[in-house]
Design a protein that fits this description.
single chain, 438 residues, mainly alpha, two-stranded antiparallel sheet, 18 helices, 2 strands, 61% helix
Length: 438
């Protein structure tokens, strides 16, 4: 019953958020949608006819490929983004696009104006509802994971609700970015390999599918995949569970092969492409400087960091460290998956795009591991002083209410000063760090 209520509450809050003015439909979002349209309606990955007036429901027919699509092998225009999410989204858009067009054709221009809707805006709202359902499903999985980590049902409910309705999940659960899907897949796999004690082959197959799809969803998730594979490998080796190992690693191998085939078909290379490339190899001191800057930025930067927008993760990080005393296996698994993901983002050799995420809401690059990092809350709320926990939670709830009402202030301009200060009038940014977006 708690799961149903949790799903309904999160869904209702997220649907309410979609009625507020945001920058939805900008950045990478419409380009992922263009890929999904190509799959759904053309049954191919040639996106040459999925931009501009050829797709009037995407950005009112004004979207251009820019750097999001390049000419690949055979002179075909190919998407540079990974295709995992568009593949899963294609059945949704195959239904949603004609439904949106049908509804828009039957609404009078006066009513559309009063509702401040365009046909593409109406279509985007339908897709946002689908993403909100994904966010609500993630909240339910968080609830179950908190209980697996030792929380009571009541505490697990409130923790899952708090995390699901806090940035970054609050906003990313309504947008067509890969982050919420990555977070759901990452937690689904982690729950099997680290939280549950079973030898059911079906669960290991499901975990393998989630881990493999995590890589196909975005290559940036490679660090999290490596961490999940390491945790799972240690577990099956310790228990000599060869059947579980085969069930877990076979789907991963299949997805790796599929991604390699797709990449070679598009670009004639096995791993890299115009978007996914190796960065410069830096010397030891430069490597330490860049990696340190990125880590501090990912956590503390006033524009793109996690903690300024979700201080509840102070409790989570402390709680993960405290978990080491009574559940070293869980603490080690959290640290390994989170750490592996962060290392891949921090190193300039494996991440040539920096750490800010470009034009997108705050903490974009932290979102895939947020649910796993949040598991530390189960211990943190118990071991930290109640007064401190209450104060942080109150601040978090206040931030959630503010950003739900003013979601545009989650998008920053990369000028070193948070939008909540520039447009929202918050006076505290002078006390928050601002890191160079390198």
């Amino acid at each position: 019953m708690r799961r149903i209520f949790l799903f309904a509450v999160v869904m209702l809050v997220l649907l309410g958020l979609t009625t507020h003015s945001t920058y939805a439909g900008s950045g990478d979002e419409p380009h992922y949608l263009a890929i999904a349209h190509s799959i759904a309606f053309d049954l191919d990955f040639d996106v040459s006819n999925n931009y501009g007036s050829a797709e009037p429901l995407i950005a009112d027919g004004q979207l251009q490929p820019e750097e999001h699509a390049r000419v690949g092998r055979g002179g075909v225009l190919r998407p540079v983004h990974d295709v995992g999410m568009p593949l899963l989204l294609a059945p949704v858009v195959r239904v949603a696009a004609p439904v949106a067009a049908w509804i828009a054709a039957r609404l009078t221009p006066t009513l559309m104006h009063r509702l401040t809707l365009t046909p593409s805006g109406l279509y985007r709202h339908i897709l946002e509802a689908a993403m909100a359902a994904l966010g609500a499903a993630l909240a339910c999985l968080l609830f179950e994971s908190f209980m697996n980590a030792g929380s009571s049902g009541r505490l697990a409910f409130w923790l899952a609700l708090l995390v699901a309705l806090s940035p970054p999940l609050l906003i990313y659960s309504t947008l067509l970015f890969t982050e919420t899907m990555s977070a759901l897949l990452c937690l689904a796999a982690f729950r099997t390999v680290a939280l549950r004690d079973h030898s059911d082959t079906r669960h290991w197959i499901f975990a393998g599918l989630a881990t493999g799809l995590l890589l196909l969803t975005h290559m940036r998730n490679v660090g999290a995949v490596a961490g999940l594979v390491t945790v799972a490998g240690a577990r099956v080796i310790t228990r000599r569970a060869l059947g579980s190992a085969a069930a877990f690693f076979s789907p991963i191998a299949a997805f790796v092969a599929l991604r390699t085939v797709i990449n070679y078909h598009f670009w004639g290379t096995y791993v890299t492409n115009p978007h996914i490339r190796l960065g410069a190899w830096a010397g030891a001191s430069e490597l330490a400087r860049i990696s340190g800057t990125r880590l501090i930025g990912l956590l503390l930067d006033q524009e793109f960091g996690l903690i300024p927008y979700a201080p509840v993760f102070i409790i989570a990080i402390y709680g993960t460290a405290a978990t080491w005393r009574n559940n070293r296996a869980l603490a080690s698994a959290i640290a390994l998956v989170v750490g592996s993901y962060l290392i891949a983002v921090m190193l300039p050799m494996t991440n040539a795009h920096g750490w800010t995420g470009g034009w997108s809401p705050a903490a974009r690059f932290m979102t895939p591991i947020v649910p796993i990092l949040a598991l530390g809350l189960a211990t943190g709320v118990r071991v930290l002083p109640r007064t401190l926990v209450s104060a942080i939670v109150i601040v978090q709830i206040a931030l959630n209410l503010y950003f739900w009402q003013h979601p545009k202030n989650l998008w920053n301009d990369g000028d070193g000063r948070a939008a909540i200060c520039q447009r929202g009038g918050f006076p505290g940014c002078a006390y928050l760090p601002s890191l160079p977006p390198e």
